[in-house]
Amino acid sequence: MSHPTKRRLHLAAGVPGVNHWTIWGAPGAGSQIDFSTFEHVARTAERGFFDYFFLAEGLRVREHKGRLHELDVAGRPDNFSVLAAVAAVTEHIGLVGTASATFNEPYDLARRIASLDHLSGGRAGWNIVTSSDAFTGANFRRGGFLAYPDRYRRAAEFVELSRALWDSWSDGEPARYRYAGEFFDTEGWFPVPPGPQGHPVLVQAGDSGDGRDFAVETADVVFSRHGEPEAGRAFRTDVRARALAAGRDPESILVLPGVSVVLGDTEAEAQERARDIQFQQVTPQTAIHLLEQVWGTDLSAHDPEGPVPTPPENVEAELTQGQARRVDDPSAAARAWHAEAVEREWSIRELVVAKTTRHEFIGTPSRIAEQLDDAVQTGAADGYVLSGSVVPHGIDEFVDRVVPLLQERGVLRTSYEHPTLRENLGLGDRPRAGERRAELEGVAS
Ligand SMILES: Cc1cc2nc3c(=O)[nH]c(=O)nc-3n(C[C@H](O)[C@H](O)[C@H](O)COP(=O)(O)O)c2cc1C
Asked: By CB atoms within 10 Å of each CB, which of 154, 339, 343, 359 scores lowest?
């Protein structure tokens, strides 16, 4: 059956990082570091005709109250090494790795990504993040780090220079490149010929106005945290308006929020499973820990099942280091959480469950298929990045039970049409990237 007017649903699968959404203590939970985990998720996603397999990045083991963050001791290997290994056990699925534009150097990263594009036959992608804070920077720099306002300016030059490197070969030979900008002043020859995609697919994850402007200037895909259909629609509308204002066709940029899906044989069972997962995600200890992050103060003397204490008037202390801040005014955020908890008579744990866990799609397989289809047809998203709450089997059930229904609806492919990720995403030529300052001089060596 053909559905000529339907928009396609794009799907990606992530191995969830070290965070409390993953239930590491669940029966059957695997390792965060074993290759079998990455292999299983990637091959399952390929069995479900997903567009790409995705890995986030954490560049410094986080700390909470000056001690190791308990969830980070699981370990986190280098993305592009993992993706190269996954390339060997998959055939079609795209391979997208997150890498910071703040702490890498363009020549080295562009070379690693181009290498993955070759090794995988044109399936490589780079999720560009800026992740700048002094705490992470201390791992990389001798003193100093990038100031918050400068990170997207550096990222824009980083991408521009990477593109210049990927373009620097001509007639099967490297040509001399030279790039002079505010952050980079480099020249030489790039050692890797253009991969099958020319330019690997660029994904971007950043939420601020600057982040969104950077996305429409550079990226093929925006990875967002706005998975609820209404919030997703507002985000996607904003990104598309920014694209138009920047002179770019909004259809050339895909918005894929990260979401979680909970299935059940009946709606009631799905709701019950969702609630059960949420309380497993937020253990009593995690509840205290997460509230401490928001309150900025030690709460270890409080009962997680007891009432929510009044937050300090001024929340200043950053008890947790190494993760992106999500609110502009921490004191106001804490007051709002407290007011809601009092009104609803929530315990600490109930508040933290309500505020920090989410399942965007809950229901029977047919209801989920319908909701995903609707979301894409009504502009809430161009697709979704799914991650399960249990590693590595979290997306198995979705692939077994929902994927066939999506295919029946005509919104999901029944075979991979093209060899490259860029083509499978339906993306045309790469987006233009600002004004190029690179000079490419063809110099015979
Ligand atoms: C959906 C999403 C995923 C992100 N994933 C990562 C990641 O894997 N690693 C990382 O260092 N930063 C990650 N970031 C953080 C961003 O790089 C950035 O530092 C943060 O969003 C603040 O930038 P903004 O003010 O533009 O949003 C992510 C951000 C978003 C919105």
From this structure: 343
Residues 401-410: what's their mean pLDDT? 98
- Among protein residues, the one with the nearest Cα to ligand 1's atom 21 is 206
| Cα distance between residue 217 and residue 418, in whole Å | 26
10-265+359-441: which CATH number, 3.20.20.30, 3.90.850.10, 2.60.120.260, 3.40.50.10090? 3.20.20.30
Give, using CA atoms, the residue closest to atom 12 of ligand 1.
131
Nearest atom, ligand 1, residue 223 CA: 1
- The per-residue pLDDT for range 323-382, each reduced to its tens digit, is 666 677 889 999 999 999 999 999 999 999 999 988 899 999 999 999 999 999 999 999
pLDDT digits (tens, 9 = 90+) for 16-25: 776 778 887 7
Are 86 and 40 in contact by the 8 Å Cβ rule? The answer is no
Task: Output the residue whose Cα is nearest ligand 1's atom 31.
Answer: 206
Residue 212 CA: nearest ligand 1 atom is 26
* Residue of 124, 84, 86, 97 whose CA lies nearest to 14: 97
Site to substitute for ligand 1 among 57, 103, 133, 207, most atoms within 8 A of C-beta: 207
Domains in the chain: boundaries: 10-265+359-441, 283-356
Strand 439-441 vs strand 176-180: parallel, antiparallel, or unpaired? antiparallel
